[in-house]
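fold description:
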Amino acid sequence: MGTRGVFLLDSENWDRRLSVYTKLDRLYHGRFSKNECLEEVRKKSRAVQRVITDELQRKVAVRAGLVVYGPTLPWNIHRIGGVDVIGGFNVRRWLRRQETDGLTEADVERTISALQRALPPRYQEQER
């Protein structure tokens, strides 16, 4: 998140021996459908967008991406069902190519605080 906009990236480490391909707007890794991964990223991005919209009182787009490590993708960046599927080595390029969303530094700070309150970390260190 920054003045360029809000990005939600989920990463997956898949078996590099299996190919990755799309068929009829569906994502496959070998013979296994990976559409549940795409749906999970979409749900997370919608939740983040609701929190940000409530905090800033204006709609801010959240760009969703699924970063895949392991297999070589037949593309650099491919959009499937509203989610960009990105090879692990192309994340920096993907982020740099995104349009700016016109967020100010104050917007960014308010949004980060709201997200920390609304979406606590899934995994927290155990107190010793």
